[in-house]
Amino acid sequence: MDKKFEIMKKAFEKANEMINNAENIQIYSHIDCDGITAGSILSSMLDRLEKDHQVEFITLDKIDDLSIENELTIFSDLGSGQNVHKLGDLSSKIIILDHHPPLRPMIYDKHSSGKFLEINSHYYDIDGSFEVSGGGMAYLLARTFDFYDLSWLGVLSAVGDMQNNIPGKLVGLNQKILVDGVQKGLVDPIHDLSFYGRQTRPVYVALSYFGDVKLPITNNKNESIHMLNKLGIPTKNDKKARVLSDLTKEEKSLIFSELLKMLSREVPKKYVKYVPKLISGESYEFLEEIKYSPLRDASEFSTAINACSRHKHPEIALKVLKGSRGHALDEMEQLTLEHRRYLAQKMDWIREEERIIQMHNLQYFEGSEIKSEVIGTVAGMILSYGDWKKPIIGFTPVNDDEDGMKVSLRCSRLLAYDGIHFGNIVRKVAAKIGGSGGGHSVACGAYVPGENINKFLGILDEYLNGVI
Ligand SMILES: [Mn+2]
């Protein structure tokens, strides 16, 4: 990793120089958790360098319509998969910082007389799906100006991009960025049970949402409380419900052993060896944030950013990420609440109407009542109500005035540990019916022509014969 990084570093030095020479800078960053965090890093960096700049968060389809006017334009967490090189006559200088698979070969820069610099991790054999995020790339640029204290944001963006999901911890360049954060005293990596809501959720609630495999405790708070009682683990301190981060190491290892037993009994034999990886992993705590605040835990923080992004208020997340608390934080918490309420309501809608339809190798729900921005989140949450051994697919129109469908797939991590990469499968299947897609092994999606959605499901179901 160090060697690859040393080579890529030269490109970042070039970008450093381009920024030093520019006075008027426009940033376009992707409007998801990773992209918003990346944009925040770049904006903090430019503030400190006293460079005039604007940040705009956009969806990928907006790139073609941009007119490039500033002296320097930075594309962040996007750009490598789009025709950025065709925008205007390159009167503006362009920097791309991306970790998605690139369209152009690296060599393209050489013909641009120093006006076009594309830094993509894949050029250096660094896998952008789990070794570095968009925010990581932004941080590595900030690092050339010695802004090591922005490293915690690089950790946050990687977690927001689910890069630690399959390895169980941050690896590759992500780990290098983590080390910066640890050395600055800003991040604490903790080996912990992998329950969501370490700072804010009562532990019995967190336990009941333990997904991936359906157990008696799954979606059942009474059973979860019962299990904790049986293990002699109090659910409250005085009157306050205990959260995961309140538990002692001994209590956590009791839960670990119990889950290990339950899961090993429940899963098919071929999966048993992966069970420990499902139950525990590395969590990341931000030491400057108050205990019991959702900002204290990387995973909970990223949900709050997603809530802002999915309700089209990335500017609120930007403020919080750049250090505002107070009002901006109140707004963020309000959006998180709304986000949670919206998701719960849509979950009820699916369950009450029994909308999950089983096919041979997959299951799906038609989600036209659900905003396309959260169809994947809902799919992930509803998986534990369906058949966890199959992937679940949700689809909904991209937006009201287009007939394109957004399709999202989620599955248990056990399927990925067993070697299935749904991102790659979905990409192939979508391409066959005039769509496009891709993503992670357990969380991916596609855009497909609306009239072809049944074809998509049929081909995918058939493709999975003998794979699952
Ligand atoms: Mn990204």
Please summarize what this structure is.
The protein has 468 residues and is α/β, with parallel strands linked by helices.
Which properties best describe this structure?
6-stranded mixed beta sheet, 3 domains, Diaminopimelate Epimerase, Chain A, domain 1, 15 strands, single chain, 40% helix, 5-stranded parallel beta sheet, inorganic pyrophosphatase (n-terminal core), alpha/beta, binds manganese (II) ion
CATH topology of the largest domain, which one?
Answer: inorganic pyrophosphatase (n-terminal core)
State the domain count: 3
Distance between the first and last residues' Cα: 33 Å
Overall 3D shape: globular
State the share of residues found in helices, binned by percent: 25-40%
Q: Any idea what the radius of gyration is?
A: 22 Å
In what order do the strands lie side by side in the largest sheet? 10-11-12-13-15-14
Protein model, in words:
The protein has 468 residues and is an alpha/beta fold. The protein folds into three domains: 2-186, Alpha-Beta Complex (inorganic pyrophosphatase (n-terminal core)), CATH 3.90.1640; 195-286, no CATH class; 354-463, Diaminopimelate Epimerase, Chain A, domain 1. 40% of the residues lie in helices and 17% in strands. The chain contains 16 helices and 15 strands. The strands form four sheets. It has a six-stranded mixed beta sheet with strand order 10-11-12-13-15-14, with helices on both faces. Strands 2-1-3-4-5 form a five-stranded parallel beta sheet. The protein has a two-stranded antiparallel ribbon with strand order 6-9. α13 (375-382) links the parallel β11 and β12. α2 packs antiparallel against α4, α4 (151-160) crosses α10 and α15 (422-432) packs across α16 (453-463). Bound molecules: manganese (II) ion (MN). Manganese (II) ion binds next to α2.
